[in-house]
Amino acid sequence: MPPTTFAWIGFIAIIGVLLALDLGVFHRKAHVIPIKEALKWSVIWVTVGLSFSIVVYFAYEGHWLDLGATFDPIDGKLNNGRLAAEKYLTGYIVEQSLSVDNLFVIATIFTSFAVPTIYQHRLLFWGILGALAMRGAMIGIGAQLVANFHWILYVFGGFLVLTAFKMLLGGGSHSDPSMNVAVRLARRIFPVTDRYHGNHFIVRAGSSNSTEAALPGFAPLDDPAVARVKLGTWMLTPMAIALLVVETTDLIFAVDSIPAIFAITADPFIVFTSNIFAILGLRSLFFLLAGMLDKFRYLKYSLAAILLIVGAKMFVSDWLDKIFGGHFNIYLLAIVFVILLVGCVASWQAQRSSNRRL
Fold first, then answer.
1. What pLDDT sits at residue 276?
2. Phi and psi (nearest 5°) for 190?
3. Residue 47, SS3?
4. Quick check: 279 and 124 in contact, CB under 8 A?
């Protein structure tokens, strides 16, 4: 077993512990997430994500478990502590910023399916758990493609540039979540209840025994959908349908965001860890910004600009390396930060102007 395998096992174990503490201890009881709590958890997850760059630095500087022992296909260099930390931080910021666009879609999904506020955190938890598994698989495939077919980087770059122009031209609007292909397929295969049943994703159609029908996990007889199926049949709830849409939506966003980080590095461990920490902070960030998402009117253009720059970098990386040397990722990190700042400030100024005219 290669030594790097133990690094992967250790990291996944740490993430598992963090998620278990999150759902099993801190959010064991379903409740509405207030702004203050969302802010606290946003700070915690961002701090953890940024602090992990210190672990990356020492791990790659000392080549712990053979991390950084192979050449990075992107720049052809061995990742020492400084390079690895720079690439991790750049990847983390890029992935975190691109994830913001996902928040707008999540808000649309919650509204479309009328997900009760008290259950939104639990739904996002399981949604992100599925996203971790999907992205892990996609990163593994992407890393192998980049390692064996360097020309795939130009395909990734072209895809990101096209996506950026699509966003700029207004093609990034999202369709009605209820028309999702996966949703229509699920409704055709499985019976679905007409209303929510607590935080359950599946329930059984209630029996004639009123006591049993009232138990958790049973759909009461007064649910209209129960009349259309045999009693005792397992049924999906709207929570399950909403979760399905969240998962399929994240898959679509992953197709955009994962190629973006391969413009920075193809080291699988750096790509995976930066991506995972960016996703983990997405839930608390959603509850922090849920009421303000419509105010970030220019953020879409900032995200499109980031995709455009990152995609273009894939075509001219060798030229940029000759001009800026090994510190280009620091410059890229600064550019991404400035673009996000400009988008937020422009949105804030536009909102102030709108409020003054009212």
1. 93
2. -115, 145
3. helix
4. no
Per the listing, tokens 């400035």 go with 338
Q: Are 175 and 191 in contact (CB under 8 A)?
A: no
What is the pairing mode between strands 218-219 and 202-205?
A: parallel
pLDDT, residue 208, reads 45
Average pLDDT, consecutive stretches of 10 residues, N- to C-terminus, the chain (358 residues): 91 91 79 87 94 97 94 89 94 87 83 90 89 88 87 87 82 60 86 87 69 57 76 89 90 82 92 93 84 76 88 79 69 86 88 74
Write the single-letter amino acid at 291.
G
CA dihedral 146, 251, 306, 348 (to 10 degrees): -160
The SS3 of residue 271 is helix
What's the length of the chain? 358
Residue 213: predicted pLDDT: 41
Angle (deg, nearest 10), helices 238-261 and 181-189 = 150
Q: How far apart are CA 104 and CA 155, in angstroms?
A: 27
pLDDT at 51: 96
- DSSP letters of 299-322? HHHHHHHHHHHHHHHHHHHHHHHH
Residue whose tokens read 């988008």: 343
Give the distance from CA 35 to its chain's centroid: 20
pLDDT at 272: 94
Residue 25 DSSP code: I
Domain boundaries, the chain: 3-176+257-357, 193-236
- Which string of DSSP letters, residue by residue, matches 193-231? -SS--TT-SEEEEP-S-HHHHTSTTEE-TTSGGGGGS-T
**Which residue in this structure is represented by tokens 């938890």?**
125
Q: Max alpha carbon distance in the chain (Å)?
A: 76
According to DSSP H, which parts of the chain are helical? 3-21, 35-61, 81-112, 120-148, 152-168, 181-189, 210-213, 238-261, 268-280, 282-289, 299-324, 328-357
